[in-house]
Structure formats: C-alpha cells, structure tokens
Amino acid sequence: MKTLIKVNRVSKEYKMGTQTVKAANNLDFTIDQGELVVILGPSGSGKSTLLNLLGGLDKPTSGEIIIDDENITAFSDKELTRYRAKEIGFIFQFYNLIPNLTACENIEVLNDIVDENIDGQEILSQVGLSQHVNKFPSELSGGEQQRVSIARAIAKKPKMLLCDEPTGALDSKTGKLIIELLISLCESENTTVIIVTHNNEFAKVANKVIHIKNGEVEYIETNENPQSVDAINW
Fold this sequence. Notes:
The protein is about 25% helix and about 30% strand. The chain is an alpha/beta fold. Helix 4 (about 120-125) crosses helix 5 (about 140-155).
C-alpha cells in the first residue's frame, strides 16, 4: 500500500495567559492510502487538534505533515485553502447543511470551488438518497442528513475523509449504516477515511487505531482482519 500521510514529530502549542498548553506533542505516525483509521481518545486528548492539523485548518508549531508527498506545513494560507477545497472531505457530528438549499443543491454548491462539474443527483444516488434530491434538510431524518453531508464530502473525490464523531447524533441502526458506507468508500474508491472518536467499539472495524492521550500517541494498533459493522456494540 502507498503511504498517503506522514506525521513527523508534530507538536501544536497554544498560549493561555502565561501558560503554554501542548494540544499535540511530538506526534509521529503514518497512514496508508485506502485505510480506515480510528483516532481514539477521551475528551480533551488532542484528537480534534490532530484532525484540524491533517485537514489544514490549523498549522503545527513544529514538525511536518506530508500528504501525498507534499509538505502541507509549508503551504501558504492560499495553498491551504486550495488543499482543503480539492483534497479533503470533512464530515462532522452535526451535518452543517445549508437549510434553505435542497439536498441536491447542498452538494452542487461545490461547483463554485471545484474544477469538474458535480451532478448532485448522481452523488446522492451513491448514498441511497436518489428519492430525496429535492428535499430540504428539515424534511430529512438525522441519518439522511448525515448521508447528504457524506455525499457532499465525497463529491469532489477527496484523497481523504476526515470524520469528527460522524455517528454521535445518530441511533445505532443509522450509525451502523454510516460506518458501512465509510468502509465501502475505502474498499471501492481507495479513499483514506479517518474517524475521530471516543468510542472504543469503532476500533473493531478499523485497519489502524491511533490511541491519543494528553496530546501524545499512546500506542498504535494495526488490525489485519477488521470485523464487520455488526460487531459494534452501541
């Protein structure tokens, strides 16, 4: 497998008054293309900080992040904006859909920032929502809204999907459907999917689990035989 992500001795510090807080401390790991990776840790462990660094939403204080042989830590703000727009799909716990746009329009709004024309109906059919293209977010269930947000994230064919507690607001049945969809993207599209969560159960289905504690990589597990989604206890 090709190595897509290299995180080399990355730290992120924040000043809080006279104190310096290390939200990320000397992180070091790699992620391969097409892997499903779970970043696991309790609240305040630095998971979201790491996600923001990988997504180019923030810059490290020190160290390097290499994505597909490009050092994004050396990017200008303009280059980071292009990187986020072209290469990354973001999926959050809350769906961040535009309420006055239909499901289809929520996806086709990406045509303002990507080079290739995106057909919202075609993308929605990929996530099983072909019958809901003209519905507004308020007319969709939580699971359907999350699938629209996933459809929007994958529409530009990103190198990786960064998912922050993507099933946190969903019931168990719908949550399993979402995880199955993310796994299928790894397998069929060779998309790298990174899920940030505090839920230990997600480790069962991952190719790799990066355990984060106090801003540091505590240890890394590699799973040669991930279990099916049915193994997850909600």
